[in-house]
Structure formats: C-alpha cells, structure tokens
Amino acid sequence: MFSPEHDAAIHGEAHQLRSEYVIRIDGVVAARPKETENPNLPTGMIEINVTKLTILNASLPLPFQLDEQVGENTRLQYRYLDLRRPQMQRNIMFRHRVMQSMRRHLDESGFIEVETPMLTRSTPEGARDYLVPSRVNPGQFYALPQSPQLFKQLLMVSGYDRYFQITRCFRDEDLRADRQPEFTQVDLEMSFVEPDDVMNLTEGVVARAFSDALGIEIPHPIPRITYAEAMDKYGLDAPDVRIPLELTDLTEIMKGSSFKVFNQAANLTGRGNEHGLVKALKIPGGASLTRKQIDEFTEFVGIYGAKGLAYIKINGDWSEEKWQSPIVKFLSDDEKRAIAEATGAQTGDIVFFGADKASVVNEALGRLRVKIGKELGIISDTPFAFVWVTDFPLLDWDNEARRNVAVHHPFTAPNPEDIQHLDQADGDSVEHPLEKVRSLAYDLVLNGIEVGGGSIRIHSPELQKKMLGLLDIDDEEAEAKFGFLLSALNYGAPPHGGLALGLDRLVTLMLGLDSIREVIAFPKTQKATCVLTEAPSTVDLPQLRELHIRTTAKPKTAE
Amino acid sequence: MFSPEHDAAIHGEAHQLRSEYVIRIDGVVAARPKETENPNLPTGMIEINVTKLTILNASLPLPFQLDEQVGENTRLQYRYLDLRRPQMQRNIMFRHRVMQSMRRHLDESGFIEVETPMLTRSTPEGARDYLVPSRVNPGQFYALPQSPQLFKQLLMVSGYDRYFQITRCFRDEDLRADRQPEFTQVDLEMSFVEPDDVMNLTEGVVARAFSDALGIEIPHPIPRITYAEAMDKYGLDAPDVRIPLELTDLTEIMKGSSFKVFNQAANLTGRGNEHGLVKALKIPGGASLTRKQIDEFTEFVGIYGAKGLAYIKINGDWSEEKWQSPIVKFLSDDEKRAIAEATGAQTGDIVFFGADKASVVNEALGRLRVKIGKELGIISDTPFAFVWVTDFPLLDWDNEARRNVAVHHPFTAPNPEDIQHLDQADGDSVEHPLEKVRSLAYDLVLNGIEVGGGSIRIHSPELQKKMLGLLDIDDEEAEAKFGFLLSALNYGAPPHGGLALGLDRLVTLMLGLDSIREVIAFPKTQKATCVLTEAPSTVDLPQLRELHIRTTAKPKTAE
C-alpha cells in the first residue's frame, strides 16, 4: 500500500498508476490492520508498505475490461488481453497439463516421439489440402499434412514398434462451428497389435490425462458398442450414451402397411444408406409436449433431410383409440400393437417416427434424440460418458460417384472374418456383399462427440492392392499417390495399427466448454482468418514471382 | 531353431523363410547346447525349439543390405529400410529422449507449453517465407512461421510468465550443407528476466538433456565471452573453444608500415565491417608445413574473400634474418619485433596474416584457425565445449542497401548502458555511435556451432518505435507487418526475453554426427525435395483454380 504517512513521495508517485501498469515495488510485507482484512482475496490478509516504486511499463486504457463480456471478434482481435482473463489462463494451463500427462504416459509405455514432415505430399484423408508452392522446384507444390498417417505406417515398417507425436494437422475444409484449419492431434501407432491393444493403450492415455489434469478417475474399461448397434439404437456413429433414449426399428413391421409413407420407406431398396428405414423414437412423458414444441422438432429434423415428423401421443391404450396422432388412422391394429410392443410406449409417452432413406432416418431421429434428451433433461448426470464404437464398415457406397469409398481411409484393414466377401462379385446384386465387410476401425466418443479414431492397417501388399482396386484407384494413381507405402509393404511390414486423438476437442470437453477456440491460444475465425495478425494477407508480387505463381483473384490483387 | 528332429513339418516350412520376413513363432525356450553358445549375440545363450511357425509378412529381397554402405540418395529413397539400421534406431530414439528430458525440465521449472499458429503471417526473421495460398480469401496468403517470435512475445503480454514449445519452423532459404526447409526449435520465453536468467535456465535444460540422454554432466556454468572478444580472438561469433589458437590484432602496428598491403588495410575506414584489419594467426610448430599445405590454406581462405595468405615461418630470431617469408623483406625491424612480441611466435612456429576489410580478415583467419586446429590436432579432447557469446551489436550496417539492419531481430533490446547512443546523430560521421550499441542478445555455441540464440526483447512501445525508425521501417510498414505487437506493447507489457535452441543441430552434435539428416526421420535433400514421397509434386489444375493461383512455371506445368 501507498500511504502518505509511510512515504509521502511514493504516495505521490503512486497517483500515476493506472490499471494494467507493470510495476516493481520494494517494500515490507505486513499483516493488514484487522478492519481492512479481506478473506475473499488471495492477498486479503496482508499488505506491503512500499519503500520504492518503479514503473516498468505503462498501459493505455484497455479496450475492454478483463471481467467484461465482449464479442468473440473483439476477443480475438485483442487476444493478448483476452488471454489475461483467469478463465483463459486456466484453459491454456490445463491444456499444457493434459499434453504433459499424455506424453509422459506414452513415454513410460515405451512409445518414441518421432517428428514427421510438415512440407510433404498430399495425404489420402480425402479432405482438401493446404498447398505450399516450391521456389526451388518450379510448378511443384508441397501439401501440409492432414495427418501423419503414411509416415507413421512407414515407421512401423522401420521397426519403431511404438510411435507417438502430438502434432499439427491441416485441412482446408469449409469451417463448421467447431473446426479449425489447423488442429492438434495426439497421434500413435503400434506394431503387432489387435484393436484391443490400441484401445487399451488409448484408455490409459486418456485416463491418465483425466486423473493428472482434472483429478477425475474415469470408469475403466470404457464400454464398447458396434457401429451396427450404434446406428440401430442411436442413429449416429458417435452416440451420446448419457441419454437413455433409443430408436426402435419398425421397418419389417411396416413392409405391408397400408400407410403409404411407411410402406414405401420400408420397401425402398438401394445400396449403402440408400435403402429405406422406418424407425421410432419414444420419449417417456412426451405426451405433454406442446404443438409448438413438436413444430420446432419437425423443423429441426428438416435440417437433416426429413420431410416431416410423424408422431403419436400415447394418451392411453391404442385399442381404446386413445392414441392422438395425425397418422394413427392409417395404421392397422396389428401395426399399432406392434408399435406398442416394439417401443414399449406407455400412457404419457410420445413416439416420433422417421420413414425415409436410412441415411435420413438415422441422422434425423439420432439428432432429435440428443436434442430432446438435453432439452427435456433426459440425460444422466455423469459428466464424462465415453464409449468405443467398433466394427465400422470398411466401405461406403458413394451414390453420386457410383463407387465405393473408404469409411476410415484406404489403409484400414478389413475384419478377417469378412475378408471372403471382398472377392465376391458385387455388381448390382441386391446382396451387396461388400457392404457387409466390417473393418478393424474404432472411434472413441465422449458425450456424443468423436474425440479419436483409428484402425488396424493393412500390412499385406496383396490385400492393400485389392483394397485400392475396390476403391477404383488404379495402379497408376496408387503408384503416384502412395507408391512409397505400397513399396514399403513389400519389405517385411509388421502387422500394425494405431489411433489419433483430437486434442483440441478433448480438452474442450474436459473443461466443459463449447468451442475449441477457448482452448487454442491463437485460433482462427470461421473464415479461416486471424483477426489479430490479419493473416492471411496479400503479398508482394516479387514474392509470388519467386514461387512461380500468379494470383488469379480479381478484387484484391497483390500490389 | 527349426530342427528336423524336433518337428520335420515345421523344419520344412522354415525353408521358405528369407531375410526380413516377419514371423510369429510359438516354441520352447531352452539353453543352447554348450558347443553352440555364442556370447557375442544378445540371444547367444538360448534357442527356441519352434512348435508353430506363422509367416506374418514376406519380404522381397532388400535393395541393399542393412549393414551395407550406400549413397545418401538411396538411403533417403528407401528411408523405411534405412531407419531399420541400428545406428538410425539409436539416433531417433536418442532424439526422443532429448525431447522428453527437455520438456520435463521445462515443465518442472514452471514453463507452460503453448502451441502457436502454423498458418500465420510473415514473421520478421528476414529469411524467405513459405507461403500458403488461401482458398477462402482469394489473393491472400498465409506464411509458415520462421519462428514463433511474435506469438511468444504476445504470450508474455498475456501474463504467461514462462512459455515453451518444441516446434517446427520453416525457412525457404538456399540450402547449405546442413540446413533443412523445416527444422525443430526448442522455443522459450520468460517475463521479468535479465540475460543471466535466460542463460541459466537454458544451461539447466541442456545439462539435463546431456545427463538424461547421454549420461554426461556438462561443466556448469558455461563460460561466456563477449561478441567483441570472440571476434577479436577467434574471428567468428561462434568460436570453437576446443582449439587453443588465437588471432592477434596488428592493425595499429601496421598503420605506418611501408608494406603496402598491410598499410592500406590498416588505414581502411568504413562503416560496419567495412573498415580494415591486419591480423595474425600463429600456429605453434607450423614452420614444418609444406608448400603444398600452405597453398591449400591459401586456396581455403580465398573462399572467404581473402586475396592471399601471407605467412612467416619462424625458423629462428628475426634479427638474425631467420624468418622465412615472401613478405619479410617489406617489414621494418620495428614491425618484425612487434609481430614477434604480439604473437609470441617461437622458433618452429608459423604466422599467417590477413589484411583486408574486417569482415574478410575475421572470417578467413577465423575459419583457417578451425581448419588448422582440426587438421593438425591442435584441439582439446573435451567432446563438448560450450560457450555463450554475449553483447552482440544491436545493429549492423548493410553497405549495399546503405542502411542499418538488426543483428538479431528488430525486437531485441539494446543494452541500457548504450541506449544514449541511439539518439546520437549517426550520419556519415566516422564515429558511428550506433555501431557501438550492444544488444542484450546471446548465442549458445557448441564446438564452434551455434546451437541456440536469444535476447531480452524491447517492452517499451516508445523504444520499439525508435528501433524500427533506426531500421528505416516506416510507420506504415511497421503497422502492416507487426502492428499487433506494437499495439500489445501499449497495454502493460512486462519486461521479457527468451531463446530458441536448434534441436536438430544440438542432437546431431550430441551424437557426434556430421549431418542433421542423420537425426531427422524423414529429411529433405539439398534441393528441398523428399525422394521418398516425391514431394513437392505437380498438382491438378482444379486444385490451383480453387486456390486462385496459376503456376507460371514453363517446363513442368501441372496437368
């Protein structure tokens, strides 16, 4: 404290001090006089009688106060001030602790950290690459890595049995709410493993981080469900298992329905997710939902392509005609009985229906399930509900391109039990044996959000070639894109697999935050710009000339 | 072992096995029969009687044997095989241990690891940037960071007192022997520190790495010399202090010499390193050097711009005319006496001379000193000789551009003792007061190679503006390039400073290797290409179109 009694000169100097000044004081620490003690402040019991004051740096008045709510754009523009907020300090330091904890666990588990190139070749994740023009090699471009996938596989071929890296990855995608052009991945790969080994190891890494950084022991082992079960029960491959609601499949029941909407959907055939489904979502106690609420849900499922949202309010027994619904008149008694039995609907419940292509029904009802669970509080109070989703399909049918695409990536191994289907003629048969092939891929999901994913990879050169063939990637393209990996598999590649955790998202969820931008020191906006540094920016023409490129942009040409 | 007595079927199967096959065996471990024991093998005392053999993967015959010496291009093309060599395994695993050790030390010292952006704005290191065209913002470009310099300073402004990061940096420079387009930096920054604090902390980090990874305790504290002393004694700012040879300055002595070469150099005036010097390098016992050796040294100094290499073989007392030299006839007795006294040359020695601009003399003799020290074995057997070089000049005079440039970077703080010179008119005065201003910059040198460097930064906005003015960076340019840092300094920036260690180089030196490519898993060639993945490569036109660029390269246009 600066008191005129102690030192009049310093008391005078202290009048210059303003908020956020950086000062040095020399002085004597003393107990505060009883009446001025403030136990609510960390330093509330003491005072310093200053004998010398040095102003190390002044500060202009801040554009906003540190305890003031301001828009995100302002926060990002003055990120160096925003990062002073106690909340942001906590986030950044927490992230640091998570990283150290994970690295320590991996190091102690015999993993070697190996840095892989940033200036590299297009990787096969299938998202858009960020390109870097080469000055030394005119007309050629590096790509920033979407992941170190191929390099970590090469490291397995090289005999580094356990690799990890906490590394930056890049995807030039249209930014959805919670994506960044660059993001951080906890990347790992192991040799001579099966899915269980990778999942167990990952659980150890995650559990250690929760324990070290949050002081919470997460339940162990983490429950697992198959992709097929997740889609069936939850409609999504990243289910929020805190919500006890489940979908019920009525497709078989509705195949002979005289209700055209259900009948058509139930009998719709098609490859991949183009075939039809009729599913129900029962909400216990939902009969009290208002018309307005139901209208809002109908609008919500429309986002995911649903053409409407049929429902039945279960106001009593169906046989007593107590069901209240615009569609009930189209349903036969058998169908009503089947619905009641299959959904287990009780008086007071509501049942929603989806009838369309599988892709639409699952996503619409799956997301409605989450929305309703959260809004109506039909959710457990577990703060962190993890689940592994396993047995993803190997291939997905791209109806537009009329070809198979890899669900995970082209290097994911098929489940050995299903491998014989790879040789079965697929053609236009209704069986589509290829669709039945499961992969050895697994995703880690936390509170309905995918926080990691991985797979066992193909280590046999013959199988890898077959897989590329199924993806319509011809030899020439394969050789050009990842010939080096195909070569490497020829020289004694061990069986291997791995996983990558999305660090930004995991840390965000651990802190119960909504946006990954809260745990990234200098994030970009949804337009992929940094409002602090004003990146990207125009550059001088000579710089472009050296790189053998020219901009074709009209409005803002480089000067 | 597969023996026909144990199991004839498996013995038969084993005939398929070839080098580098990946197999699984089930069997019984047993002691080898006495006569087949081989204590030179790790597994030389045991054998496994195989009961089941599974071939997990076959291998084609390798393009080279793992214990075979092959050219670097072949090694890089088959890097996944090259990395199997025990030597490369050791290097990569050693690097891992160094990284974990450093991080642990920094974490335990209260440092927070913060990730800074890779897609950012041009940083002011002055090297050429790698650019990344933006798809979302036509005509605009990100730059890959040359270092996280500005972001780490912002973090200090944000109150993260101790920051670190082991991070990738990028410089699009013409690649000298031991440079890579991307390299790894151990980057740190601290608030409320003086040079001593940063140097002490760094010594702790390095000592810990040597101790943990190499089991060697490095002498502590590391000796320090000033830049001025290093240039004076060693001619280089990264002196190899294992070599006991020193340069002797004869400039004053030669100002009145009738030997024109010395006289002109001694009287040459100019700014920066354009002024003249006459220096000597005495090699004890060097009188026995052959004509051929001296010719080779003359050619060597020519690389650094020296027009010749005068020498005197000290075959006895100068006064008895025992000096053997083409130049001795041009020297007066006083000059000879002065040379003998200043260099302390004894019978049997040789003295080499440099007379030219300071830049040429220092570099030529400085490098000759190292070459001769290593070739003639005039070098201590300390494997690791560290030295701090301190008090670098703040500014250097760029004679071509006729302006001052920052020796370290524009954010390096001047030594407070010299700060008054910043206001002195510089103009064309022979005094050049600005050249006297020392900075608070320091470099860490190991065996004559710079492995790290840093400085205390400017935290006062006024001083920063003055500094930019001295560098002829006008307000508009400053605002455009790093206006966000200048703004940040206005809001209570604490005094701060830091350092960055070059991890690739440090690990290379720790292992006694010659090239950083030996400690990088997937390095690039000197043409900045990756021969393994064939990056960079041409890309499809639509990809460029999306990025609003066009290549101007003639021979190899993208298809």
Automatic annotation (TrEMBL), chains A, B:
Name the gene behind this protein: aspS
Residues annotated as domain Aminoacyl-transfer RNA synthetases class-II family profile = 95-523
Q: How is the quaternary structure described? A: Homodimer.
Q: Name one GO cellular component term.
A: cytoplasm
Write out the entry's keywords from A to Z: Aminoacyl-tRNA synthetase, ATP-binding, Cytoplasm, Ligase, Nucleotide-binding, Protein biosynthesis
Task: Spell out the Pfam families in the cross-references.
Answer: GAD (PF02938), tRNA-synt_2 (PF00152)
Q: Which InterPro entries match?
A: Aa-tRNA-synt_II (IPR004364), aa-tRNA-synth_II (IPR006195), aa-tRNA-synth_II/BPL/LPL (IPR045864), Asp-tRNA-ligase_1 (IPR004524), Asp-tRNA-ligase_1_N (IPR047089), Asp/Asn-tRNA-synth_IIb (IPR002312), AspRS_core (IPR047090), GAD-like_sf (IPR004115)
- Residues that coordinate or bind L-aspartate: E125, R171, H408, R457
Span list, region Aspartate? 149-152
Task: Identify the residues that bind ATP.
Answer: R171, D172, E173, Q180, E450, G502, L503, D504, R505
Question: Which biological processes are named by the entry's GO terms?
Answer: aspartyl-tRNA aminoacylation
Catalytic activity as recorded in UniProt: tRNA(Asp) + L-aspartate + ATP = L-aspartyl-tRNA(Asp) + AMP + diphosphate
Where in the cell is the protein located?
Answer: Cytoplasm
Originating organism? Magnetofaba australis IT-1
Protein family per UniProt: Belongs to the class-II aminoacyl-tRNA synthetase family. Type 1 subfamily.
Domain of life (superkingdom): Bacteria
> For this protein, what is the EC number?
6.1.1.12
Could you tell me what this protein is called?
A: Aspartate--tRNA ligase
Purpose: Catalyzes the attachment of L-aspartate to tRNA(Asp) in a two-step reaction: L-aspartate is first activated by ATP to form Asp-AMP and then transferred to the acceptor end of tRNA(Asp).
Among CDD domains, the record links this protein to:
AspRS_core (cd00777), EcAspRS_like_N (cd04317)
